[in-house]
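Usage example:
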Amino acid sequence: MVGGGQLARMTHQAAIALGQSLRVLAQAPDDGAALVAADVQYGDHTDLAALRTFAKGCDVVTFDHEHVPTEHIRALAAEGVKLFPPADALLHAQDKRVMRERLGELGAPNPAWRPVADPADLVAFGDAQGWPVVLKAARGGYDGRGVWPVDDAAQAAELAATLLAGGTRLIVEERVALRRELAVQVARSPFGQVAAYPVVETVQVGGICVEVLAPAPGLPEELAVAAQQLAIDLATALGVVGLLAVELFETPAGLVVNELAMRPHNSGHWTIEGARTSQFEQHLRAVLDYPMGDTSLAAPVVVMANVLGGQPGGISIDERLHHLFAAEPGAKVHLYGKQVRPGRKIGHVTVLGDDLTDVRARAARAAHWLTEGTPA
Amino acid sequence: MVGGGQLARMTHQAAIALGQSLRVLAQAPDDGAALVAADVQYGDHTDLAALRTFAKGCDVVTFDHEHVPTEHIRALAAEGVKLFPPADALLHAQDKRVMRERLGELGAPNPAWRPVADPADLVAFGDAQGWPVVLKAARGGYDGRGVWPVDDAAQAAELAATLLAGGTRLIVEERVALRRELAVQVARSPFGQVAAYPVVETVQVGGICVEVLAPAPGLPEELAVAAQQLAIDLATALGVVGLLAVELFETPAGLVVNELAMRPHNSGHWTIEGARTSQFEQHLRAVLDYPMGDTSLAAPVVVMANVLGGQPGGISIDERLHHLFAAEPGAKVHLYGKQVRPGRKIGHVTVLGDDLTDVRARAARAAHWLTEGTPA
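Running the assembly step on the lines above writes:
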């Protein structure tokens, strides 16, 4: 797996059960996966030579992020390296413009959008669709970065000029009237088998996912099935191998695709305990061309809460764990071995149960202990 | 963790979630845990110098087997190393004579037994209790080794003479009229908190555990509670820190203690998916003095089947996994990274569900695919 973050860390846990040991291409010894994996190489994921050395002897190469240059993936594939997802699929998770164009061709539900090659494009779009609109970098954004809400034509012209001058490729999207955000994950094998997880609700604060509710509360069955079918169709049409996460806006007019990710995804961390097959095992099964695992829920209600780094000071992480475990013996904790920085994702907690209000409160309390070191 | 086998391998998986990385003292690079852990040292667990080097910088030292000499544990503890379980507790899992004596003092249910210092002791015991009897090495036995059924006085005299001449310390026990074997696990922290898992049935073939049924089918509630209470009382009386597995015989006269283990145990592998807290996480929580995790069942019925190495030849383990995953998408597989040898434990599978007959058949089919490479 190229990338040594928490996704590789948790994929290594799943690999162990399958009798494997994940080889990780990390950047530094304190990367989350480098701290725990036996087979770690160091190098930059934008360095073709490092990628080539890394790939030697791997059965298959996969990714913990979208930042490996497409041309490197193509070059390695041409040399006979097996990489999943393939470059032609991954491009749709790397480049929002490519994604929007392809979704349009496939008839998948896009918001109104257009490429922005000139500030005038943005102003014209906003004037036509109504302000505010959402300006996005085509590449490189995550966790709210690379996304700019734009309120009016004056702000639009200045911001777009600055970004375009800096070489940022841009698209603009309408600001959809969203009720809430949903996500659906599927895994697809080279053989073509696709397995879908239940649709979840993702709760974002400041562009960062803080909470995932599985299954999405009160989602009508026909919408859930439509979302799963959409993800299955996209995985198949794009030739995804491995996981595909489809982030969705639920709007009064129906579902709209927000983003795609082709790797284990924060919206799927709940599956470690909450589904019969975790997303990490499923991703490995998919890229190894094994048959897919059972995606059913392990409890009626599953809530995952991210643990963000809090302000410096206060009691140690170790003491926080003590308090959390005493307060919530059933909370499942996953810490990523990262240095704490305010707002940084340093772990997550998952709680299973029968009652959404109760389970959600328990997950929030558990995450609060780890973030703040105080009772909620 | 001293010892690099599958117990350390699975403990490492649990340590990752807690934000830790397990340091392992392994014997060889192909030990199950050495294949997957980041922090591996090599050395013999009977070498005090190797143990001393290993313990430097560890928060706490614990064990994946019972074979570390008691005097070494005492020596390290005297030097200020924190080791759990402590030597005085672990001795009862290392030495069956010490265990039987202490259980007798505590009023715990022993079979009839006595030490055998001379062949005549064995003959006298058999003549008094009735043949056959079971001769056991006080130290070093596992998976059926170090246990000899003895049918009559003639065989007894010859076998005991041979073993005693070889320096083996011996005890003899009556052959109990067992209905089945049960096991109960508890974890105890230095603070003194104890948490008990549900009582399970263990199915043995040739002295090797092949199947664990959780909870033990049809076990009367009062017997289950009595078994849990017995394990809690023993953990407390012996000063165990970490896991204690109490292996029990269910007899017409009630429960009888067979053996003790103070580490993650084969009878608890079902807890990885089948309980809210796995035995591996629970052991870490206990030795780190964290509050204990929820031990409740994750499904009404959980069955664990061991995967033993089959005869050489046939399809590869990788192909076997393909067939198993296609046949049983819900089976959870744990492979230990070991070379296959006939009869060697190379992994296990766990199946969760509602109906014992169905779940048991599915687990057996899954294990059969991995052992034999053919449909059951």
